[in-house]
Design goal:
The protein is α+β, with helices and mostly antiparallel strands and about 160 residues long. The protein has 3 helices and 5 strands; from the N terminus they run αββββαβα. It has helices at about 40-50, 105-120, 130-135, and strands at about 55-60, 65-70, 75-85, 90-95, 125. A 5-stranded mixed β-sheet has the order 1-2-3-4-5. α1 runs parallel beside α3. The longest helix is centred in the C-terminal third of the chain and has 16 residues, at about 105-120.
C-alpha cells in the first residue's frame, strides 16, 4: 500500500504522510554572499545534469505548503511554497534527502511543480536558488516568473 493509493499520480492527495526534511530556513537558500552550502550543491548539480529520476508520485500538500516527491511510502524530496494572493506562488526551498541526490529527483520535482503552476495559470516568485538555477537552464519556464515580484536575484536571499 502506498500513501497515494486511490489518488492520481500528480497532485492533490487528501492526507499525505509527512517525513522530516530540512527546514526551509536551512534548505534551498544561499548565504549572504550568494554561495550555496554543502547540502545545496547536490540538488543544484541535480537540476543542471541529465534527468534520470526514479519514479515518484507528486503530492501537493496545500495545508503545509509543500510539493512532496514520494517514493513508496517515503517523502524523498520537497519544494516548499507560500501562496501570494489568487495568482502567485512563492517557491521557497528545495530539499532532497541525501540518498536520493544526484539522481534527477530535484529536476523532475521542480519540472512537475512548474508545470502544475502553469496549469493553474499562476505566476512565480522565486526565493529558492535551486529553482532559479533550474529555470536558467530551462528557459521555457521563464515566462512563469512574476514581473513585479520575481523574487531574490542571484546573491540575495531576501525579497528586495
Amino acid at each position: 500500500m502506498t500513501i497515494n493509493e486511490g489518488a492520481p499520480a500528480t497532485t492533490g492527495a487528501a492526507e499525505p504522510t509527512r517525513y522530516a526534511l530540512a527546514h526551509p530556513a536551512e534548505a534551498g537558500h544561499a548565504d549572504e554572499k550568494g554561495a550555496l552550502n554543502q547540502d545545496q550543491t547536490g540538488p543544484v548539480d541535480d537540476v543542471i545534469g541529465e534527468p534520470h529520476a526514479p519514479a515518484f508520485d507528486l503530492v501537493n500538500d496545500e495545508k503545509l505548503g509543500i510539493y512532496a516527491a514520494i517514493v513508496g511510502d517515503r517523502e524523498v524530496a520537497g519544494l516548499t511554497y507560500n501562496v501570494a494572493g489568487d495568482d502567485r506562488v512563492v517557491l521557497l526551498a528545495t530539499s532532497v534527502i541525501p540518498e536520493f541526490r544526484k539522481q534527477g529527483v530535484a529536476t523532475e520535482l521542480i519540472r512537475r511543480v512548474l508545470d502544475d503552476v502553469r496549469v493553474q495559470g499562476k505566476t512565480l516568485t522565486i526565493m529558492c536558488p535551486i529553482v532559479r538555477t533550474f529555470i536558467e537552464h530551462n528557459t521555457e519556464y521563464a515566462d512563469l516568473i512574476d514581473r513585479e515580484h520575481p523574487g531574490a536575484s542571484p546573491g540575495h536571499t531576501h525579497l528586495p
